[in-house]
C-alpha cells in the first residue's frame, strides 16, 4: 500500500492522483465520476418500491385476517374470502401510494439541500454540486464552507477547520500544506481536510483524495449503517396513540366473536367480523399519513423559497411564538447606498438626489471626504460586482465620485490586514506606510486619539468625541447605517491598527426595508408571534428601522446582554424588541433566555459563528444567499431569498400542515370509534350489523381516498389569526378527544337507532337493515369530514382533490348497492323512501356534529 496522503508531500499526492494545481479537465472529471460514483453518503439506501409495498402487509392482524379468509374458503364461503383479499390488497395499494410519495418527497428534499463546492476545472474556478466531485479535483475552501470531500491541502493561509463532527474536538484546528509524520492520528492530520467538517476561517486549496463512502465520514456512516430516520414528535405521539387504541380495540374485537356466536351467528362469520373490526379500527396508517402530509408541505414550502432541511421543523414552525430575525438583508433589502458623508465638521449629502450637475456623478467632495472614500475603497474585500453589500456601497460611492478603484488598488497594494468579524466590528488594512481602518463608529472612536481637520490631525478632545457621537446618533435616527473610517501613519504591522488612529470621518448608508416586510410583521404579530430584531447594527439605526416596520422599539445592546446574568436577562428578554450591536454569542444567550421562559423560538443567522444559535433554536433559519455553508448545515430551514416575509409564509404553512394532520386524525379516529362501538353494542344483542366485508369497505373508502386528499387541503387565511399552538400539548388535546368521543357517540346512537327502526322487531339483522346502516355510516363519515374541516376554518369547497375523492367514494358506494356485486357485500338496492330515511339521519346528525364541534372548541379555549 502506498503511504497515506497526509504523510506525503502535496505534489506527490497530486502526481499520484494524476492531477495538477489547476485541477482536472471536465472531460477527465466526467470519466472519473463514472468510475468513482457520486460524492455522497448513502444512508442505508432508500427503500425499493417493492419493499414499501410489502411493508403494507407487515402486520400480524392482516395475516390473521387473511388466514381467517382462507378458513372461510374451506368452509365454502369463497366469495367472502376473495372480497376480503381484494379489499386488503386495495388498502395496501393506498398505503403504498402514500408511503412511496412520502419517500420520494424526502429524497428530493435531500437533493435540494445539497451543498456546492468551488472546484478548479479546465483551469477555472467554478461552483459545482458537491456530489459531482471526484478524486483528483482541486477544491478551493473559504471560511464558512463545509469541506465537500476528503482532501490533501496544497495551500493554506490562516486556515482553521472545526472537525468536531469527526473527532469530537470542538476547538478549530490550524491546517497547513506540510506533510505530517507517519502514524499521526486523524485528529492531528493538519495536512488534510475531511468531508463534512467546517472551515471556520482562512483560505485553502486541496486536492480531493477520497469521495462519498470512501471518506472518513463515509466510514462512520457505514458503521452506523442503519437509515437515520428523522421522526417527529407528532409521529411518536401518534405511534403511541395507535398502540394504546390498538390494545383497546383488540380487546373489544375479541369480545365480539363469542357474543355473536352465542346468538347463533356462524363461527366463521363471527371470527371474520371480529378480525376485520380490529383491522379496520386500528389506526395503523396514521404515522404514514403524517409523513406524507409533512412531506407534501415541505414541497409546497420550497416552492415558496423556504427550504426545509429537517422534517420535524415543519411541525415546530406551527408552534413558534417568537421570531428573532437579523436586520440587514432580511428585514431590509441589503442593497446599500452611501447617502451622507461627515468629516470634521461638515455633512454632505451624496445620494443620487444630490446629483447637482445631472451627470450621474454625485456632488463634488473635499480632500477629506475623498480620503474617506479612499479608505472605504481600499480597506475593503469586495468588488463592485461581488461581495458584502456594505463594502459594495462604499465602492459604488467611490466610483460615483470618480475614484478609479482598480487603479487605486494596483497602486496601493495591501501588505497586511486585520479581517472583519462580527465580534470585532472593524477591519483594517496596511498599505506599506499607511494603515486604514473602517468599522462601527464607537469602536473606531475608541481606538482613535486624533481627528483629521482642515489643519491636519488634531487631538480628539472629549468635545470632539461628543460631537461625533451626536452625528452618529443623528445618522442613526435617520435609519442610516454608519461606518467610521480612520487611518494611521507608518504602522509596523497590522497589529498596530488597534490603536493610535486618526479619525477621518463617517459614512451613512441607506438600506431600505423590504417591501413586504411591514405587512409580514403585522401578520406574524396578529398570529400571536413576537418578532424581535437581533442585529449587529447600532442602537439608533436599528430602532429607526424597527419603528418604520411597525416593530416595538424597546432596545437592549449586546454589551448590556453581556453584562446581565442569566436571571436578569430572562426577566427582561420578553419585553425587548430590538437587540442592537450584538455578537453571535449574545444570540445564544437571548435564545436560551427566551427558551427558559418557555418560548418556541425561530432564529435566523448567516455566519459561521451563528451555527450554535441556529442549532439550538427550535427552528434555526439560515440565509440562502448571504449565509455560509456552515450556517445552512446547522439550520432547519434555509430561506432561498433571505426575506423575512418567507419566514412568515413558512410559519403559516407549518400551521396549515399541522391543521391538516389534526383534521385527518380527528376524522379517522371518530370514524373508528363509531365502528367499534356500533359493532360491539349490536353484538351484545347478538346482532351482526357490519359484517367483515362492509367494515373493510368502510375502511377503504374513508382511510383511502379522502385521507389522501386531506393532505392537500389548502391553508386557510384563518391559521394566522390564531395564537400559536402549545407544543407540549401535542395533537391529542381536549378538543380532539372531545370531538372524537362526541362525534363517535352521535354516529353510534344514530345508526343503532336506524338499526332498531328498520329491524321492526325482527330477531336477526336483515339484509335491508345491514344495507341501511352500512350506507348511513359511509355518508355520515363524509358529512363528518366536512364538519371537521369547517371547525378548522377550511372553506368547504377549497380542495378539488377532496371533492373528487368524496365523489368517488359515493359512486363506489352506489356501485356496491346497485350493481350485481351487491350480492357479495350483503346489500340490496335502496329505494327513494330509504334514501329519505338516511337523509333524516344525516339531517339530525349534522347539527349535532356542529354543536359538539362548537362546544369542544369553547372548552378548549
Ligand atoms: P445584521 O446582524 O442585522 O446582519 P450587521 O450587518 O450590522 O447587521 P454585523 O455584520 O455583525 O451585523 O456587523 C456589525 C457592525 O460591524 C456593523 O453594524 C458595522 O458597523 C460594522 N461592519 C459591518 N460590516 C463591516 C465591514 N465589512 N467592515 C467594517 N465594519 C463593518
UniProtKB/TrEMBL annotation:
Region (Disordered), start-end ranges: 1-32
Compartment(s): Membrane
Membrane topology classification: Multi-pass membrane protein
Gene Ontology cellular component terms for the protein in this record: membrane
TM region positions: 52-75, 81-100, 664-688, 737-759, 765-788, 800-821, 833-856
Keywords per UniProt: ATP-binding, Membrane, Nucleotide-binding, Translocase, Transmembrane, Transmembrane helix
Cation-transporting P-type ATPase N-terminal domain segment(s): 4-77
GO molecular function, one term: ATP binding
Record protein name field: Cation-translocating P-type ATPase
